[in-house]
Amino acid sequence: MTEKQRWTADLIPDQTGRVFVVTGANSGLGLATTRELARRGGRVILAVRDEEKGRRAAEALGADARLLDVRPLDLADLDSVRAFADRLRAEHPRLDVLVNNAGVMAPPRTLSAQGHELQFATNHLGHFALTGLLLDLLAAGTDPRVVTVSSINHRQGSLRFDDPNGERGYAPMTYYNQSKFANAVFGKELHRRLTATASPVRSVLAHPGYTATSLQTKDTSGLAKLFFGRIGNPLLAQRPERGALPQLYAATDPSVAGGEFIGPDGMGELRGAPTRVRLSDAAADPATGRRLWELSEGLTEVRYV
Fold first, then answer.
1. Which of 53, 171, 173, 115 is nearest to 299 (CA)?
2. pTM (2 decimals)?
3. What is the pLDDT of residues 181-231, one digit of tens each?
């Protein structure tokens, strides 16, 4: 995209008849994504941890009620992920796009229902399991895609295979960066595996740059919460409507290819219009992808066919 062709939500093609799942759809990037997809005629299933908040968010959008469907999903709880997928499979013969958007950031060390570190469980394992459980519905879709939302922080992250749950030393931002690195590794490895099986599903990665959402302040602890709440978000960050553009582009633009990474085109990829950006060499490493895949299958008991 050139400067004269900078992409905006007004360029989203007509989405009438298409079915989307957006995780974390009741606020921030997820809500902004839901709004634009519904505005273009897409039917959006809002996958949310708090169903009442999801209903209020859906009502506030003012979209045709037939286009929005709120469903409970706690990505940190693999039982909830399976229940969500089972219900969706019972009610829908196909799914066109899954947007793996939801996340938590830098909370005090907390374990999920299955005993996994909360950020790794929510940001990566829940989405890994959800994608695997819905992959056959996606394969039946039209121009089907999985959009996994990572972060510029993936470039600061690594996978602590010997201590994924922070038992021997937990630092909130270190483990947030691990989860975002895992998102990037997963999206790229998923692309490899889909390509190898000639699947019609495309795996695309996106990141929002620096965007002001409740992610940075709701669960965040310590100095990170102070910085984001008092300085970063009010003064430096862009609005969710702008931050959601890369994932909207990844989900809807006909030119997007599997394996691509979409982020803002501005300085440092902090803000701007969607463009193709570089995945870190570490995240693109096939050996790391295979290792994370094996770990994730073992922890979730979800195996892709």
1. 115
2. 0.92
3. 999 999 999 999 999 999 999 999 999 999 997 664 456 555 554 444 454
Q: Are 47 and 73 in contact (CB under 8 A)?
A: yes
Burial status of residue 174 (CB atoms within 10 A of its CB: 0-12, 13-18, 19 or more): middle
Residues 6+ apart with CB under 8 A from 90: none
Torsion, Cα of 26, 33, 149, 129 (10° steps): 60
Taking CA atoms, 53 is separated from 27, 60, 62, in Å, by 9, 11, 15
Distance between CA atoms of 149 and 205, rounded to whole angstroms?
6
The gap from C-alpha 75 to its chain's centroid, in whole angstroms, comes to 11
Inter-residue contact 205 to 187 (CB < 8 Å): yes
Cα dist from 112 to 82, 120, 290, 300, whole Å: 15, 9, 24, 12
Answer yes or no: 210 catalytic.
Answer: no
CB environment 274-298: b (16+ within 10 A), e (fewer): bbebebbeebbeeebbeebbebbee
Distance CA 150, CA 275 (A): 15
DSSP 5-60: G---GGGPPP-TT-EEEEETTTSHHHHHHHHHHHHTT-EEEEEESSHHHHHHHHHH
Of 175, 176, 210, 249, which is the active-site residue? 176
Q: How confident is the model over 92-151, as pLDDT tens digits? A: 999 999 999 999 999 999 999 999 999 999 999 999 999 999 999 999 999 999 999 999
Query: How many CB atoms sit inside 10 A of residue 205's CB?
Result: 30
Which residue intervals of 63-171 are DSSP H helices?
Answer: 78-91, 118-119, 126-139
